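Example record

One chain of 758 residues, shown exactly as stored in the release files.
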Amino acid sequence: QIFNQHNAEAPNLEQAFHRMAQMEPNLDHDVSWFLLPSYWAKMVVALISFLCFANSYDGDFVFDDSEAIINNKDLRAETPLGDLWYHDFWGSKLSSNTSHKSYRPLTVLTFRINYLFAGGFYPVGFHVINIILHCTISVLMVDVFSILLGGLQFSNKGRRLNLAPKSSLLAALLFAVHPVHTECVAGIVGRADLLCALFFLLSFLGYCKAFRDNKEGYTFSVFWVLVSVILGAIAMLCKEQGITILGLNAVFDALVINKINVLELIRKLLYKDKSLENAGLLRKGLLFRVTLLMCGGASILYIRWRIMGTGPPAFTEVDNPASFADSLFVRAINYNYYYSLNAWLLLCPWWLCFDWSMGCIPLIKSVSDWRIIALAALWFCLIGLICQALCSEDSHKRRILTLGLGFLIIPFLPASNLFFRVGFVIAERVIYLPSIGYCILFTYGFSLLSKQAKKKKILAVAVLGILLINALRCALRSSQWRSEEQLFRSALSVCPLNAKVHYNVGKNLADKGNQSAAIKYYREAVRLNPKYVHAMNNLGNILKERNELHEAEELLSLAVQIQPDFAAAWMNLGIVQNSLRRFEEAEQSYWTAIKHRKKYPDCYYNLGRLYADLNRHIDALNAWRNATVLKPEHSLAWNNMIILLDNTGNLAQAEAVGREALELIPNDHSLMFSLANVLGKSQKYKESEALFLKAIKANPNAASYHGNLAVLYHRWGNLDLAKKHYEVSLKLDPMAPGTKENYNLLRRKLEQLQKKGG
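Predicted C-alpha cells for this chain:
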C-alpha cells in the first residue's frame, strides 16, 4: 500500500508538478491539433468510433461466424460450462488431433451469454456488443496514448498527469477509425481480438497504476503488478496475442520508469562495465518486477500447454503456402513479404479481404521477383526507425520510437510464423493490437512535420482528411460485412486469384438456389487450385442434383484420391454410385466415409436408403437406427423407419418407432403425418385424425396431408369431411397420385346414398 502526504500547499504543489512536466520535451508543443478536456476528448473518440461501425449492427452471421457460433455446441445451455475450458474456439476438444488449438474460453463464454440473453441465434445482440467493445477500447486508448506519448507522471495527490492531450486525442482517433479494424468489429468472431485488446490495455494501465512519482523517485505496488499479470492472463484467455502485454509492460518499465538508454546498456554489457548497477536495473526494482512478469507469463504458458494436451494444430498447404516451402530462403523471403503487406495495410487500408490464402498472394521463388522491393522498403524503414530509437541523443525521441516499435512488433509476433506455423497468410484481425504502434509512429511523424512546417493548418487539414477518408472506408467496409454475398463479392477484385473467394461466392449462390451461377464459381475455384477438394465436393453435389452423374463421379473420385480421409466426399460419391445403380461400390464408399468419421448420421441414413433399395430391410433399419442414435433429431431417418415398417406390415413396431420419434421431435409435422398413417391403418381413427389435423396446422399447403386425412375419413365413414379434404388436396395438387380416383369413388358413393335416401 502506498501513502501520500498532504498539506495545505497541495494544490500549489500539483500545479508546480504540472508546470515542471510541461517544461520537458513534449509532442504537444509541436502538434497543431485540437485541445479538448479529457472528458470531451473521450466523448468525441467514442462517438466517432461508434459512427464508423454503427451500420454493422444488423448484419448477418457471416464467414467464420457459422462455425464459431451457429455450429458451436458450447453456446447451448445443455453443454456444461466446464466443457468450455477443454474445448477450442470452434467447440472441438483440445485433445483432438483435428483441433484448431485456438484456446479462447472467455470469448466463447461471452458468445454463450449473448445466445442465452437473445434466446437464440439473433446476430443483432452479437454485433452490438462488438461495437460497444471497440468504442470502449478506443476511449481507453486516449489514456494509453497519453502515457505512451507524454510519459508517466503523477501529481502529489497521485493523480496521473496527461502531458500530451492533443497528441493522445489524435492517436486515439487514428486508432478508432482505422479501416483494418472492420473485420474485428463487424465480424462477430472478431470478438476474440476485441476482448483481448480490452484486457491487454487494462493490464497496461494496471501496470502504470503500480507507480507513483514522489521526491524519492518511483515507488511501486506489488499488488498492481500482480493485477497486471492476471489481466494479461485474462487477455490470453480471450485470444493468444494477449500474453504479449507482459513483454510490453517490461519494455515500458525499462524505458519510461527506469529511463534506460538501450544502446548505452548494450555497450556496458559488452564491455562488462562495473557501473552496470547504476544503469537503473537494480536501483528501482526493475529486475524484481521483470521477474514477476516472467514468472507470471511462464506459468500462464505452462498451464495453457497442459490444457492443450497435444502438439500444434495441423494446417494445410493452402492455409499458409510459404510455411510448407522446402527452401529456407523461400520461407524467409515470403514471411518478410507478408510482413510488408501487413505494414502496407496499416499505411493504406484500401484493399481489404476476408481471406488472403489459396493463391491470393503467389509465392516469391527468386530474387528476380519485383516484389522484393517491398521487403527492401520495409527493412529500410524499420532499420532507420530502430537506429533512431537506439542512437538518438534526444531521450524523448528514443522513448517514443522504441515504444512505437514495441507496440507495433511485439503483439504481432504470435502471427509472424517465427515460433510456430499459423493457419493464414495475412489476417487483418491480428493487426488490431499492432495498430497501436502504428498510431504512435504516425502521431510522432505528424509532430515532426508540424515542427518543420510553416503552414501548420494545411498539415492539420490533411490529417483531418485522412481521418475522414478512413472513417468513410470503415462505414463502406462495415456494410460489406453485413452479408456473405457482399463480403465474398467484395473480395473478387482484391484477390481474384484466391480459390477460396470463388468457392465462397459459389457456395453463397448455391445456398440461394442459383445453381448455374454457383457452378461457374466452383469451376473457377477448382481451376485456380486443382487440389481444392471442398470445391470439388460441392460442385459434384450440384452436378449430382442436376443428374450429371458421370462428371460428378469424376470430381468426387478425384477429391477422395487427393484427400483419402475426406468423409463427406466419400458419402457423396456413394450417393452418385447408388444413383448409377453400382450398389456394391456405393456401399463400400459409405463404409469408407464412416471409417473416417465414426459419428456420421447422414452417411448412415444414406446407407439405409441403399439397403432399402436392395430390399435388405433389417440392414436398412439398423442403419437408420444408428443415424438416430448419433443424431436424435434426424427426422428423415425416423420417417424412413416408420414408412418401411408400415410398408412391410409391422404396424405395431412402426407405431412404437413413431411415438419414440415424436417424443424427441414433438413439432415435426412429417413425423406426425407418418404416424397418423400407421394409426389409421390400425383403426385408431380418433388419434390418427388428431395427428393429421396437427400436421395440417403446421403445414397447411401439403396436398398429401389433406389427401391422406380424406382417406382416413373415407374409411371411418365421415364422408362429408372426406369430400372436403379430397377437394382441398386436389386444389393444392391436381395431379396428386390416387387422390382423384379416391375422390371419384367417394362421389359415386355419395350419389348412391342420395338415390337410396330419395
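Notes: The first strand starts at residue 211 and ends at 214.
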